[in-house]
Structure formats: structure tokens, C-alpha cells
Amino acid sequence: MTFLPRRRKNGDDRDFSRNPGVSTNMRAAVVAISAEQAEASQRENAAIARGLRNQDPEVLDRLIELYQHRLMRYLLFLTGRREVAEDLFQETWMRVLLRGAQYNGKARFDTWLFTIARNLVIDLSRKRTMTSLDEMCDTTEEGRSFEIATDGPSPLELFQVREDQAEVAQVLLKLEPNYREVLVLRFHEELSLEEIAGVTRAPLSTVKSRLYRGLAALKPEIERLRGLRVAEATG
Description:
Largest sheet: none
Oligomer: single chain
Shape: globular
Strand content: under 5%
Helix content: 55-70%
Radius of gyration: 24 Å
Order of helices and strands: HHHHHHHHH
């Protein structure tokens, strides 16, 4: 039996999906929504800037409540040590309080917050006669060729699967600091590549290179970890 499409009562059986006017209206609506969201974000950033400039304790309390878990996670991945991360966590919020007037609201607050935290990590590393984050990785990384295996799930797919997050967190700490930082900022904190470049003060091309190399290094480490677990379970 063949079913014919039901005609409208007024006889109008036009396919609106093929109507260019409808598509134009949809695109205009999406643009309008995006503009409203951007405007709301700008208003929020401006309100944060005013609160920090006035050292409003309620604004600081709200920011700590909103960003404390993300900041601690970032510091943990950056340092690899909870006690160090906790000290830097407190120091970061002290800097936010004391230097709040430096935030002008033109950028997202979280990018400014992560920049402060990163600078504190670098300062601590220098005090301990360690190299900075930028020097922990081979400076010729952009000049080396690299390949990502195409068979099986990509490292990005492995990274994004929620049930793999515990494994990824364990493996991330084994990667070079520069790769680890970019992966955390991109996939955990959902910063754009341009925003990551701002936080790390690295060229956009360098950020892209570190991202791809980090993803390439992630997959074999996860597979190795899973192989060990399977061996333990069957042994």
C-alpha cells in the first residue's frame, strides 16, 4: 500500500524545507540568538569587572563557587601534585582579589583566571630551579613530522567518551606538560584555540601543534593502560 502525503486543508502542499525564504529566516534567527548570547556574556563580564574593581566580596564568592572545581582540575593537571595544586589554588584567588582591577571584562573571566594560575605555576617552577612550562617540551616540536593512526577510534574520540575520563585523567599526567595543558584547556575547559593561545602566550600554530601531538600521544598510552588492566583481570 502506498501512502500519499497528506495535503493541507487550504490546499497548500508546499515543501517549506526547500523554501529559501524559510532557510534565510532560520539563519537570521540563529544569528540573532548568537548575538544575544554574546551580548549577555559581555554584560556578565562587565559586571564581574566592576565587582572585582570594587573588591565586592559577594562577586568573589560567586566566582569561587562557579570556577573552583575547574581551577583545581587545571592546577592538578599542570602540577601533578595535589598539595602543590591546593597551595596555588589559594594563591590564585588571592591574586584575583588583589589584582581584580586588571580584569577589564573584554575577555572571558575563565581565560584570565587560568592565565593567573599558569603564571603562578611558572613562578613556582623557577623558584625550584625547574624549567618553565614552555621549556619542558622540545622547542623543535613544530618542525617534526607526526602521524595519527587512522585505524580504530581516533584519540579525540577516545578523549571525548565519558566512561574513559578516569583513564584519560591518569594518562594525561604522563604526557609532556605542554601537551597536557593544551588538552585540558581544550577538552575539559572548552576554550577555543585562540583563547588557549592567549592563556599560554603561544602562537596559534604552536597551540595547534601541541594539541595534535598530545592527541597522538594519548591513544597509545590509553591502549597500553587498558592492556594492563585486561592482563590483570585475566591473569
